[in-house]
Amino acid sequence: MAATFFWAFVVGGLICVIGQLLLDVFKLTPAHMLAGLVVAGAILDGFGLYEPLIAFAGAGATVPITSFGNSLVHGALQEAEKHGLVGVLTGMFEVTSSGISAAIVFGFLGALLFKPKG
């Protein structure tokens, strides 16, 4: 069990280190860095490499932003098998809609409960 936590920490930390290097060394803006990590997760899933990473690292691979790219491609490919080209578009939204909805709801609740500083 401790090994699971260790590898989740290491893999999640490495993904964060990559993001920080993109910001510091390559002088990318935060928006470019986030888009790059989402695309990297999408590409890794397209080649079938992200699911084994999730199996190995658990939350270390599902929590970072790269998992969003993985979810987009994974949903699109699953629905494309069932519904063809239309499934590519609907699959992306079907798989990611609950996470996006939760972020909106919790962000709204946070804005209601806490007073912004500034």
Give a quick summary of the entry:
The chain is mainly alpha-helical and about 120 residues long.
| Radius of gyration, whole Å | 16 Å
Q: Based on helices, strands and strand pairing, what is the structural class?
A: mainly alpha
Number of domain modules? 1
The pLDDT mean sits at 90
Largest sheet entry? none
- How would the global form be characterised? globular
Which structural traits does this protein have?
SpoVA; 118 residues; mainly alpha; globular; 6 helices
Question: Can you give a write-up of this model?
Answer:
- By secondary structure, this protein is mainly α.
- It has one domain (2-113).
- Helices cover 84% and strands 0% of the residues.
- The longest helix has 29 residues, at 85-113.
- The chain is globular.
- The relative contact order is 0.11.
- The model has no long low-confidence stretch (mean pLDDT 90).
- The chain crosses the membrane at residues 6-26, 33-50, 95-114.
Topology of this structure?
Blueprint (H helix, E strand, L loop, with lengths): L1 H23 L5 H17 L3 H8 L1 H4 L3 H18 L1 H29 L5
Helix pairs in contact: 2-5, 5-6
